[in-house]
Design goal:
heterodimer, A: mainly beta, seven-stranded mixed sheet, B: mainly beta, six-stranded mixed sheet, four-stranded antiparallel sheet
Amino acid sequence: KAGVTQTPRYLIKTRGQQVTLSCSPISGHRSVSWYQQTPGQGLQFLFEYFSETQRNKGNFPGRFSGRQFSNSRSEMNVSTLELGDSALYLCASSFGSGSGTEAFFGQGTRLTVV
Amino acid sequence: AQSVTQLDSQVPVFEEAPVELRCNYSSSVSVYLFWYVQYPNQGLQLLLKYLSGSTLVKGINGFEAEFNKSQTSFHLRKPSVHISDTAEYFCAVIFQTGANNLFFGTGTRLTVIP
């Protein structure tokens, strides 16, 4: 069974540009969550999608957005990139929507903003 | 306030020695508790979780953790570490407020010394 796949693995963008990251969950999983990992702030929750609906959102500016498609694949978009957006972006998928359902993480996308 | 604290940012330990990584949380609601491991340039892998029932939880790779409600702790232990256990370890909590997102501690870097 294939794991969570995130593409691309590495990305370099310039300040002011926008970027789209992709996450393919494990087959059959309907929930996808996104996390940002930085040395300074650690791991922080961005948002969660379940059956194409955003269920929960973390404390990030509106430049960060996401969506989920009918096949459960998810994308997150960051517009008007800032240097501080450089981070490892992790996607996690889980089967159900209830708390405590195990989340499986992808290897992440390393975004560098220059 | 709801929070997760990992007091030890770095823990060096000799090979085959026991180790304990500490995790404390603060919450006014019930919680689910998790430990994840992250190897360099990788995503997060679930070691173990506590949802309910027995307070002693056994996970993969010989790790175990004990939920102590009175001390609001969920410390991770392993009786004998191996070189391959060198990694970053994250304690995570789901606060049972209806949301499903993980709140992470700042991580503990475990270094196993030969």
